């Protein structure tokens, strides 16, 4: 009697297996046609909500204290400020650079006077040489006159007079040589004057670069939006000191496409990845359905607007079942068009629908 339940169980299991085998191998009922229509195949991709061209970190190129910063979700125009740093130190550097430039310009003005002063000195030296030549010629003529006179009168010239005249002639000859050497030195000074002018001009260019650098630093105290976009995340507040050693950027910025409006209505994109084995099933222009990864919330309709030309490694950090970390994937860009509520109604998209970075499922049906 105790074995009866076991026997009954084995009999029921046998009957079940026989019935399943018969149903699997049974031919279609007479008069019925087999369904040869291919069943719709769905491709599921995983992705994240993103900008059309991604997001960008806002990192000031200068260091300093934050004196103003935008709030999250603010939409700004191209050229609007995003973050302001205290410009006091940058203004002082600019003022110092401007003074240095003026000093360099004054040195150039002084150096440019060098050729005029040198020309005047050279003229004076030339006149001095001419006077020395005349003086030497006069002394030489006087000596020659006395020697000729003594020869004509056939008497011996006074040795003291002759010695005095020859000494004067030697002195004047030496003086002429000194004046000529000074003229050569003045000629050589022209090279130094030209070098001083060139050096002064180079100094001005250097000071101009320093001024431009200081002006650049002052301008960069105000970080501006590269194009129209929305402030996604703010990691600092007024009074925070930017040192350049921060682990995270002070701000995350989302560039918005030009067709986006200044209202809450906007264009939302999803960057999704599909594994290489399924990549051939998707085409540009296909309609897709997007929903939160948890299957909660409303659904969204979209269109595949871009397919990457590169089959690369996964960007997603979270591994899905049956996926390996070295699996190649193809990235697709999906532009969402409509929000579908749970009651079936359709509404335009807004910034409150999906958040940047939110993980979603993208379903493509053929």
General description of the model:
By secondary structure, this protein is of the alpha+beta class. It has helices at residues 4-25, 88-112, 114-153, 159-219; strands at 42-50, 56-58, 64-69, 75-76, 81-85, 222-224, 229-234, 241-242, 251-255, 268-275, 287-292, 299-313, 328-340, 346-347, 359-365. It contains 4 helices and 15 strands. A hairpin with a 6-residue loop joins strand 11 and strand 12. The radius of gyration is 48 Å and the shape is rod-shaped. Residues 23-32 have low confidence and may be disordered.
Keywords:
366 residues; alpha+beta; 4-stranded antiparallel β-sheet; 4 helices; rod-shaped
Describe the secondary-structure layout.
Blueprint: H1 4-25, E1 42-50, E2 56-58, E3 64-69, E4 75-76, E5 81-85, H2 88-112, H3 114-153, H4 159-219, E6 222-224, E7 229-234, E8 241-242, E9 251-255, E10 268-275, E11 287-292, E12 299-313, E13 328-340, E14 346-347, E15 359-365
Antiparallel strand pairs: 1-10, 1-15, 2-9, 3-5, 3-8, 4-7, 5-6, 7-9, 10-13, 11-12, 11-15, 12-13, 13-14
Helix pairs in contact: 2-4, 3-4
């Amino acid at each position: 009697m105790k074995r009866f339940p076991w026997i009954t169980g084995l009999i029921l299991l046998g009957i079940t297996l026989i019935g399943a085998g018969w149903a699997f191998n049974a031919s279609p009922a007479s008069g019925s046609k087999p369904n040869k229509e291919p069943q719709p195949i769905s491709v599921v991709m995983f992705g994240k909500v993103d900008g059309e061209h991604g997001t960008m970190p806002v990192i000031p190129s200068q260091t300093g204290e934050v004196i103003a910063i935008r709030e999250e979700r603010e939409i700004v125009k191209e050229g609007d400020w995003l973050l302001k740093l205290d410009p006091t130190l940058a203004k002082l550097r600019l003022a110092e650079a401007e003074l240095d430039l003026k000093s360099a310009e004054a040195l150039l003005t002084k150096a440019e006077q060098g050729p005029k002063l040198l020309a005047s000195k050279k003229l004076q030296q030339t006149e001095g040489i001419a006077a020395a030549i005349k003086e030497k010629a006069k002394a030489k003529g006087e000596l020659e006159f006395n020697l000729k006179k003594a020869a004509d009168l056939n008497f011996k010239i006074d040795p003291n007079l002759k010695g005095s005249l020859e000494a004067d002639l030697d002195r004047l000859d030496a003086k002429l040589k000194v004046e000529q050497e000074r003229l050569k030195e003045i000629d050589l000074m022209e090279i130094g004057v030209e070098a001083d002018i060139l050096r002064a001009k180079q100094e001005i260019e250097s000071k101009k670069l320093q001024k431009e650098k200081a002006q650049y630093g002052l301008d960069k105290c105000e970080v501006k939006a590269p194009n129209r976009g929305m402030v996604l995340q703010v990691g600092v507040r007024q009074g925070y000191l930017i040192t350049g050693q921060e682990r995270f950027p002070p701000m995350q910025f989302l560039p918005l496409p030009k067709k986006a409006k200044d209202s809450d209505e906007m264009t939302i994109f999803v960057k999704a990845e599909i594994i290489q084995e399924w990549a051939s099933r998707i085409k540009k222009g296909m309609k897709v359905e997007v929903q939160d990864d948890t299957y909660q919330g409303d659904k969204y309709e979209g269109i595949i607007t871009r397919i990457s030309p590169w089959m690369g490694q996964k960007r997603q950090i979270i591994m899905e079942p049956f996926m390996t970390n070295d699996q190649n994937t193809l990235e697709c860009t999906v532009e969402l068009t409509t929000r579908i509520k749970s009651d079936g109604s359709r509404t335009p998209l807004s910034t409150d629908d999906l958040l940047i970075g939110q993980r979603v499922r993208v379903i493509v049906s053929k």
